[in-house]
Each structure stands twice: as C-alpha cells, then as structure tokens.
Design a protein that fits this description.
single chain; five-stranded parallel sheet; 16% strand; five-stranded mixed sheet
Length: 530
C-alpha cells in the first residue's frame, strides 16, 4: 500500500482544485481517477453536441495561472474544448505527477487505527488518514429497465457511455429516449443528419435559449484586466456567477410591462439568466412561477409550426413548476420538430411496451431504428458514491446507511464514516452552484479544516447521526417552502425507481456558503475531533 496524508477520488473540478490546494498547504496527496484523462464528466461525455450550460468566464477556475494564457473559442464551450482546458490546467499547475489515471476505486475501508485503506481494479492500493470523495453528481449513468433492450439488433448507447470513436448518425434511422440535457443536445445534432429521427418524450423539457456566440481572442485578452474583480464577485454571495444577478423584488412587485421587460432582457442574454436572473420569488411563489412559465411557453410555441406538436413541447399548463427541473440550454432544439424527418412520440399517451430487434414498440406502433440513444440520465448525487464499497466504522456500508435516505452534515460528512469528506456531493449546493465556484469554496473550506486539524494535533474528524438528521430535516423544510418538492426530478432522487424521495441538493448556494462559514467560525460546529 502506498501511504499519503490524503487520497482524493475523482479528477473533475473539485478533485483537481483540492489536489492543488492541499499540496500548497504541505500535505502529501494522491488523486485517483478511473478514466484515462482529466475533467470528470467532460472526459466521459463524448456524445454528439455535449456542451456546458454555464458560460465562461464563470466556468473556469479563478486561479490566475489557469486563465491568464487560456483563450476560449465559444461562450459555452463544447466537450472537446473543455478536455483541452483541463489538460492546460494540468500543465500550468503541474498536477499529473500526483494523479493515477485508469485506476478505478473498488473499496474503501476505515480501520481501527484511524486510516483508510483503498483498493483498486489495478491491484494498486493506498492508505491515508483522510479520504476525500469528489465523484460528482453525474458519475453513475442510469439505464431504465426497458423490456427487450438486449434484443435490439442495431447500435445502442447511453449518452454517458458513448464510444470514443463516435457513432455515425448520417442517413440512419435514429431514436432518442429522454429529453433532458443530453437528449436535447443529441436531437440538435441528429435532426439535420439522420434519415429519420424519433424522439420519445415522457415529460416536456423547459429548455432555454443558449444564445451561443464565438469569442474573440483579442477581446478576451482585453477583458482579463477585469477578471480579478469578476472572480471576486463570483466567489462571494450573492450568486455564484460573475454576471447573473437576481432582482431583489418579486414578480408582482412591478407592473405587467416592467415584468415583461425583465423577462425579455433575461431571455435575450441567454443561458441561465431566465432561470436565476429575474425575480426573487420565481421558485418560491406559484403565481410568480406561472408568470415565468407562461412567458417561456409563448416564446417556444411561436417557434413551432404544428399546434399539436406545440401542445406536447410547450403545453398550455405547466407539466411541473418552471425551474424545478434543471433547464437545458438549446440552440434550435424546437425548430428541429418543424423538420419533416423528425417525429415526436408522447410516451404518456403512447407508452413504450418493448424494445424489439428492429426498433421500439409502443402501444400503437413500432418505430424501426438503426440507432437507439439512451439519454436517460444518472443515478445522480449518490450513485457514484454508493457504487464504491465504502465501509466506515464497524465495517458499516455507505450504501446500506443511505438505503432509507441520505443523511449528511452540511453535505460534507456522514456519521459513522470518520475522516471522509465529500465535495459536490449529496445535500450540498452541488447542482445549484456553478461547478468551479463550488469547487473553490468547498475546497478552500476543506483545506482550512485539515490545516486546523494538523495545527491542533487532531487525527480524527467525524460528525454525528443527530447532525445528519438535522441537516436532512432542514433540506426537507426547504423542499416544502420552495417549489422544488412538488416536482419528481433527479434533484429529489425521483428519477430512480425505489430511491427515497428527498431533496438532495441545497437549493440556495449563498445560504449554503453561509452555513459552511458559520460552521467554521463556530469551531467547526457539528464535527468532533480527537
């Protein structure tokens, strides 16, 4: 077994930032990554059209060494450019010397001596007192139990397990099951290339205009004069973006014309502006939420030629409160359904009965396909953690501990699992926080915690079951006092059959940061040291 002060699992934004931060603080660190490259989901997601939904310079580290000589080509970078960015980060921070790639963690066990022992699929082993889990919220793809899936004779891939060599969609009959973020992106790529495209939709997606644009290198260089101030704004409340600010007013605190103007301005800015950059009560108040939905609906319906298709893609009545499922960003998604080679199938009216050798059979028809794309998402938040055999005190399993529901303290620690902390994990801000922003403030918090332990001679940190239950109750209250609890989404764990339904992401990144800082200011309240 190789011995370190800290072992980090996962080489996305969180894991890489922690490696850099902890090394600078004088800890011996090893980062272990199952994939052959850096970037987490960006290394894994090779499907056509894969692209980030947070615009730059928000979606990058605030470390000057990383942004000073880096130039983006697009406002919303695609997967390949993000992989190149992580390679750039690796070079400028010299991270690779402390990273083991192509090494999948199989088991982590906490011993009576206060150390974690970690085994891998390569036979390599690690030992460290501190284990930091940075598996992210989209580490375990979810494939529904589709009858007959193994019988399909064509090409079939989940978007998160797309082959590196790609799949030729040109001139082929393509079916896509799922209309979340990856489904939207693949539809946009497949529609102009496929002979025939069938999109199987269960619930309409409230996709927002990306408003993509190419970026000029000279303009970026000039803008970098202001980057220190931009990142200073990004990294402290309010908000976690450089340039998206929510109004300190409710939707009905203004007149109709003013409300329409705010919505229109946010719509034109694109990205998440319409989701999080309008009124303060959109995700709290039904009437305000409905006003936002109606604006979105009318914008989308105006882009669709067929009223029957419009009724499915942008129904008159909202299928769920607007914004309580993560909005996808689109570039011409709705116009795809005006094409004669694109067909939309409503799985609520025409349920899927079986996958057959030559395609998909619903209650009333068989759709012949050459390629079947499963855009069916992830066992989000918990799946990447419970897929590893993690055993804490008294050999207790994390998967068993969470079998009836997740309890954590601050989304960072779990009772019975000493010296293990999670970043961008369940019950933290995670999906409601810009990834690099969260990586930096959580990473800095963990670094200060470990420095404090070292300074005081502490070898053990853990939380209690009571603190876990209290945090879960706090999130349940937030689900009830916002509109999130009214929607069956992966935020609530509701996309996985049998998974306990609970709010798994803290829906206010500002409040979450304040909770972390308050905990630290109170001597790490809720944690025990020895």
């Amino acid at each position: 077994m190789e011995t370190f002060d800290v072992v980090i699992v996962g080489a996305g934004f969180n894991g890489l930032y922690l490696l850099h931060s902890l090394r600078n603080a004088g800890f011996s660190v090893r980062l272990v990554e199952a994939q052959s490259g850096l970037g987490g989901v960006w290394e894994a997601n090779r499907y056509p059209g894969a692209r980030v939904d947070s615009h730059v310079p928000n979606y990058e580290y605030s470390l000057e060494a990383c942004w000073r000589d880096w130039v983006w080509s697009e406002r919303f970078p695609g997967r390949d450019e993000l992989v190149r960015y992580f390679a750039h980060v690796d070079r400028v921070l010299d991270l690779g010397r402390d990273i083991d790639l192509d090494t999948r963690i199989e088991a982590c066990r906490f011993g009576d001596d206060g150390r974690w022992r970690i085994t891998t699929d390569t036979g390599r082993g690690y030992e460290a007192p501190i284990l930091l889990m940075c598996t992210g919220f989209g580490a375990k793809p979810y494939t529904p139990d589709l009858p007959g899936l193994a019988d399909f004779a064509g090409t079939c891939h989940h978007t998160a397990m797309w082959p590196e060599a790609g799949v030729d969609l040109a001139g082929r009959r393509v079916g896509i099951i799922g209309t979340g973020a990856s489904g939207v992106q693949v539809v946009q790529e497949a529609a102009p290339r496929a002979e025939h495209l069938v999109v199987f939709q269960r619930t309409a997606v409230t996709a927002l205009p990306m408003q993509q644009r190419q970026l000029d290198a000279a303009a970026q260089t000039a803008a970098k004069v202001d980057y220190p101030e931009l990142f200073k704004r990004r990294n402290v409340p309010p908000g976690n973006f450089c340039d998206i600010t929510r109004l300190d007013a409710g939707a009905f605190d203004v007149n109709d014309a003013e409300r329409e103007a705010v919505f229109e301005a946010a719509w034109r800015k694109g990205g998440f502006n319409f989701w999080i950059g309008t009124f303060s009560d959109i995700l709290l108040d039904e009437a305000a939420n409905r006003a936002a939905y109606d604006f979105w609906r009318d914008k989308v319906r105006a882009r669709l030629d067929d009223p029957a298709i419009a009724d499915l893609l942008a129904p008159w009545e909202p299928p769920y409160p607007f914004g309580t499922k993560r909005p996808s960003l689109e570039q011409g998604y709705y116009e795809c359904f005006n094409r004669p080679n694109v067909e939309l199938v409503d799985l609520r009216a025409r349920p899927l009965e079986r996958i057959v050798a030559n395609g998909v059979r619903t209650r009333d028809a068989t759709f012949e396909l050459d390629v079947l794309v499963l855009a069916t998402g992830f066992d989000a938040n918990t799946g990447g953690l419970t897929a590893i055999d993690i055993r804490g005190r008294d050999d207790g399993s994390l998967a068993e501990a969470w079998s009836s529901g997740v309890d954590t303290h601050l989304g960072m620690a779990v009772a019975g699992f000493p010296n293990m902390l999670m970043l961008y994990g369940p019950q933290s801000a995670t999906a409601f926080c810009n990834g690099p922003t969260c990586a930096e403030f959580q990473g800095d918090w963990v670094t200060r915690l470990l420095e404090d332990m070292r300074d005081h001679g502490h070898g053990l940190v853990e939380t209690t079951a009571e603190m876990g239950r209290a945090w879960t109750a706090h999130l349940a209250e937030m689900a009830d006092t916002t509109l999130f609890g009214r929607t069956d989404s992966w935020y609530m764990g509701a996309n996985i059959p049998g998974k306990p339904r609970q709010l798994l992401n803290y829906p206010n990144s500002d409040a979450y940061r304040e909770k972390l800082w308050s905990c630290e200011a109170a001597g790490y309240e809720g944690f025990m040291f020895r």
